[in-house]
Design a protein that fits this description.
It is a single chain. By secondary structure, the protein is of the alpha/beta class. The chain has two domains: about 30 residues, no CATH class; about 200 residues, 2-Layer Sandwich (Nucleotidyltransferase, domain 5), CATH 3.30.420. Helices cover about 45% and strands about 15% of the residues. Strands 3-2-1-4-5 form a five-stranded mixed beta sheet, sandwiched between helices. A hairpin with a 4-residue loop joins β2 and β3. α3 packs parallel to α10. It starts with 5 loop residues before the first helix and ends with a helix. About 25% of the residues are buried.
């Protein structure tokens, strides 16, 4: 495209046209720690004082084959799993954990909160039933974070429910506050709509960098959207 678009060459001041793999090679050389730091630095730049954290996970496909097709040929689809902690008020990602297998989200709850709390104080953490674990409530309380996680097995009476915090969730569950967690689904939806739900990179390092670059790009998209709306 650049070879034919001479106007763009002049506008960018390009004397020679870079090879089409330049961006791919640059992404492969980037260190994941730098991309993680870019995510965390932006929420500091936006001067968020207290984080209303929403923790949720989703998957990105390695293949462009549809779910219907893979089901028909009895092929097990592989996914790249990410679990992120984001501020629900600004919808900015604080920290992220990436898995190359379909691991359960629950073990990532406290590590994500600890990482986010080191960046900026977390006030409340919202999680779905997958994080229903008394240890998550206790661990977050030790960090000074209030947790809102719905309890599984609603038919079980309170007196038979294990854990002080899990009992309290059944007695006084703040449903309106918990609904703020739905904004984490919005983050995933916008990311996949703008940049697809398929991963094109081949090895694990570039796959992780691709995900982090997408989230950084989503941050830039939101910033530009806010700028134009004002």
């Amino acid at each position: 495209m650049l070879q034919e678009c001479t106007g763009i060459q002049e506008y960018l001041g390009l004397e020679t046209i870079p090879h089409y793999t330049t961006l791919q090679k640059a992404a492969a050389r980037l260190e994941g720690t730098i991309l993680h730091k870019m995510l965390s630095e932006f929420i500091l730049y936006k001067k968020v004082r207290l984080v209303l954290a929403g923790i949720d996970g989703t998957g990105f496909s390695y293949s462009a084959a549809s779910y219907y097709y893979t089901k028909r040929i009895n092929l097990r689809r592989k996914f790249l799993k990410i679990v992120l902690c984001a501020d629900m008020n600004s919808q900015l990602v604080c920290t992220i954990i990436i898995h190359h297998d379909m691991a359960h989200d629950n073990p990532d709850f406290l590590p994500l909160l600890e990482s986010a709390n080191r960046i900026i104080p977390v006030d409340i953490a919202l999680g779905d039933m997958g994080f229903d674990d008394e240890n998550n409530h206790v661990g977050a309380q030790m960090l000074g974070i209030h947790t809102v996680i719905p309890t599984r097995f609603a038919e079980v009476p309170i007196w038979r429910t294990g854990g002080i915090h899990r009992k309290e969730m059944k007695r006084n569950f703040p449903i309106n506050l918990y609904h703020q967690r739905n904004k984490s689904e919005t983050i995933y939806f916008v990311t996949k709509q703008l940049m697809s739900d398929e991963i094109t990179s081949r090895n694990q390092i570039t796959q992780e960098n691709e995900i982090l670059l997408r989230l950084d790009e989503l941050r830039n998209y939101r910033q530009n959207l806010t700028f134009h709306s004002t």
